[in-house]
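tokens incoming
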């Protein structure tokens, strides 16, 4: 009986809570004619408020890891200019999430995405899964480089795609 009561009260316990990232993985993939580019970042910071459905996350650009050191150097110095624009930020709201429901739920995130000093209104699909007192938020979407003033050098246009696929996997724990 105690287990049943605990399970019934869990959704109520989640309401009004704030969550912070416990583990993160943000990747991007560029499928270009001559060379694919993949990078991974596990240093994303994020807060999610269940009451307001507000979410914010910040990705330190220099923390993207590449297979090749030269790719990382070019990425930071020539394309994203990480000294000038050290992070990418999303600030918005989650729509269509019901904390009382168990399982994976399809949601939308609407808000402002800032990359390379340019801020755009975006709507991206994703999922949220409640795992006990924790949450898992995942999303996959496409970013057009020209939308954020990221220039592709004319000589390297075959190595850098016009669009990159971004995947976000954030594991949250309650803020105590």
């Amino acid at each position: 009986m105690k287990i049943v009561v605990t399970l019934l009260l869990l959704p109520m316990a989640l309401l009004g809570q704030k969550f912070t990232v416990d583990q993160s993985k943000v990747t991007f993939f560029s499928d270009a004619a001559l060379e694919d580019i993949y990078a991974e970042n596990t240093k994303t910071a994020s807060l999610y408020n269940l009451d307001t459905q507000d979410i914010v996350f910040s990705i330190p650009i220099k923390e993207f890891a590449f297979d090749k050191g030269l790719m990382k150097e070019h990425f930071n110095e020539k394309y994203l200019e990480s000294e000038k624009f050290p992070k990418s930020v999303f600030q918005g709201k989650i729509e269509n999430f019901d904390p009382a429901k168990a399982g994976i739920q399809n949601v939308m995130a609407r808000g402002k995405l800032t990359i390379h000093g340019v801020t755009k209104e975006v709507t991206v699909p994703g999922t949220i899964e409640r795992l006990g007192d924790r949450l898992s938020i995942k999303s996959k979407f496409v970013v057009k480089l020209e939308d954020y003033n990221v220039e592709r050098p004319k000589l390297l246009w075959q190595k850098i795609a016009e669009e990159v696929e971004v995947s976000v996997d954030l594991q949250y724990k309650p803020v105590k």
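note: The CA atoms of residues 4 and 47 lie 30 Å apart.
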